Structures are given as structure tokens and as C-alpha cells.
Amino acid sequence: MNQKRKIVLFIATSLDGYIATKNNSLDWLFDVEGDGDNGFSAFYQTVDTILMGRRTYDWIMNQELDSFPYEGKACYVFTQSVVNDTKYVKFINEDMTDFLDRLKSRSGKNIWIAGGGGLINSIIKTKQVDEIILTIAPTILGGGISLFREGDYHLNLELKQMKRYNQFAELYYMVKDV
Ligand SMILES: NC(=O)c1ccc[n+]([C@@H]2O[C@H](COP(=O)([O-])OP(=O)(O)OC[C@H]3O[C@@H](n4cnc5c(N)ncnc54)[C@H](OP(=O)(O)O)[C@@H]3O)[C@@H](O)[C@H]2O)c1
After folding, report:
1. Superfamily of domain covering 7-176
2. Pocket probe mutation, ligand 1, options 55, 70, 150, max atoms within 8 Å of Cβ
3. Per the CB 3.0–4.6 Å rule, which of 21, 35, 126, 130 could disulfide with 166?
4. Any idea where the domains of the chain sit in the sequence?
5. Is-above-0.85 flag for pTM?
6. pLDDT tens-digit profile of 74-112?
């Protein structure tokens, strides 16, 4: 039987629910002693499509990388501006529910919501997220860019698995039907 592809949020967060500091630093995350790549490559193999917000895309493009890190996957960047597509990404400005419905109706591997908080908030409101995998750093930031925002939604989750990567704790949830 063909299983429908899933939309999965996989992201690292501080214990108090921030994904970056106010000035977009992730240094606090890279300073944590993990184990290997903390499950990233195993997860990465399960997806062929990546969704990100424009600010996360800008953050990636500001890093001194030799090549685009998600080459070979379909990468969609959400923005309300009109931006020309590149060799690696397509810029999207359309109704989120319709877009996700279309993606889900195609066959393929899972779809990764890479972040950041603004995009997560937009997608979570559509109630189309199937799984949430949080990698929690042993850090309390006290402020920054929030993982989840206040909004008109309520999701019930089921905890499927917990893993430890040295100082990181990974919580794996399925989103229950609402
Ligand atoms: N801890 C982690 O694992 C992790 C992972 C990813 C990102 N981050 C960090 O998170 C930060 C960025 O997060 P953020 O919350 O500030 O921004 P973001 O979610 O990456 O991007 C927000 C932007 O996405 C666009 N957008 C969002 N929803 C949209 C919709 N429904 N339709 C069209 N466009 C939409 C808008 O772009 P326009 O303004 O262009 O219209 C919006 O300003 C960065 O510092 C990044 O490093 C951390």
C-alpha cells in the first residue's frame, strides 16, 4: 500500500523554545556537545522536499558555504516579495493550504519544514503538519526567535520516541487528527 508522504517539522530549539537569538545567532547550538550529526543525516535521507522561510534562506546564504547545502532536493522558499528562482530554490507566494495539498498529492519522500518560526507558524495554522521532531539543546536563551507563536490553533500530539544525542534530547511526536 502506498503511504502518503508526510510533512515533518525537524528543528533544534533551546529549552525555552527559541530557534535563534534575537540577532539570528545559532552559536549557542553549535557549542553543545552532541553525538555525530545528532540524527540529521538519517532524517535527511527521508525527505526529498524542503520548505523554508525567506529569513532562514537569507541566513543560509550569508554563511560562508562552498555550495548550497540542500542541492538535489526540491527546495521552496516562502516570501511575499517577487524574487527570481535560482538553480537551487523556487520562491513561493501562494495560499499555503493549496500549496501543501498539491505537494502532498504528489508521490515522493517526506517534506521537511526547515524553519524558521515565521514559516512554522504559517504552516502549523493549516493543520497539515504530520510529525514534529524537536532536538532540544540544554540552553535557556531568555529571548530570541520563537519556535512557536501565539495563534488560533491547538494540536494534540502523541509522543512516539525519545532519543539522546549526548547533551541533546530529541522528542519525536506524531500530530493526532484534530
Ligand atoms: N534552530 C534551528 O534549527 C533553526 C532552523 C531554521 C532557522 N533558524 C533560524 O531562524 C531564523 C529565521 O526565522 P524567522 O522566524 O525570523 O523567519 P523565517 O520563518 O525563516 O522567514 C520568515 C519569512 O518567510 C516568509 N513567509 C512566512 N510565511 C509565509 C507565507 N505564508 N507566505 C509567504 N511568505 C511567507 C516571509 O518572507 P518575506 O518577508 O520575504 O515576505 C517572512 O518574513 C534565522 O535566524 C535562522 O537561522 C533556526
Report:
1. Dihydrofolate Reductase, subunit A (3.40.430.10)
2. 55
3. 35
4. 7-176
5. yes
6. 999 999 999 999 999 999 999 999 999 999 999 999 999
